[in-house]
Every structure is written in structure tokens, then in C-alpha cells.
Give the backbone structure.
Amino acid sequence: MPVSESRYVRVARIADVPRGGMLEVGVGSRTIVICHTRDGWFAADNICTHAYAKLSEGRLKKTRLICPLHGGSFDCRTGAAIGSPAALPLATYAVRLTGEDVEIEVGDSPAGS
Ligand code: FES
């Protein structure tokens, strides 16, 4: 028996996010960035772990998500902080494509907990 429930939630249409692009989506109280890379689709928390900035307003270079405020960066596949001054990882979410839709898996507990 699973201890916690998770579910996939439709957040966008595939056509909304061209390859190389990002899209900010909201799921409950969370703000999440969808990244469509050459390596596939990924989703992570959209708020930088260094201070407060929306990563969707930064840049996506391959799988490197670059913060617009101080230039810290993250690997959007894993959430790992890979460029200073970012040091703490982002929470990430599984992504699946169904038909024309992009869905992400979200648990019942708040992100990062
Ligand atoms: S707020 Fe993102 S690197 Fe500082």
C-alpha cells in the first residue's frame, strides 16, 4: 500500500511549450516551471532557492535553467543546483504527455516537504 497519494494533473497543452521553451504553471499554491528540452520534458519549482525570482523569467540553455536575478543555475532534469550562487536544489516533478496535454505528477504534500 502506498503511504502517500500522488496524481497527474493537466497543466498545459504540448503546443503551448515549443522545444527550448519554458512555461510557468500553477498547481494549487505551487508555481512550477515546465521545460521542454531536447532531452525531453521536465518540471521543477519555479522559485529560485537562492532568493526570490521566477526561473521561468530566466533562460533555458539545453537543460540548464538560469535564474534571471543573480545567474545561479539548475539542472532542470534533477533540480540540482549547478551554478553559483544557487546552492540548494529545486523540487522536481514527473512529467507525462497524454494526447495533446502535458501532465505533471504532484503529491498530496506541499512541494519541498
Ligand atoms: S535569486 Fe536566483 S540566483 Fe539569486
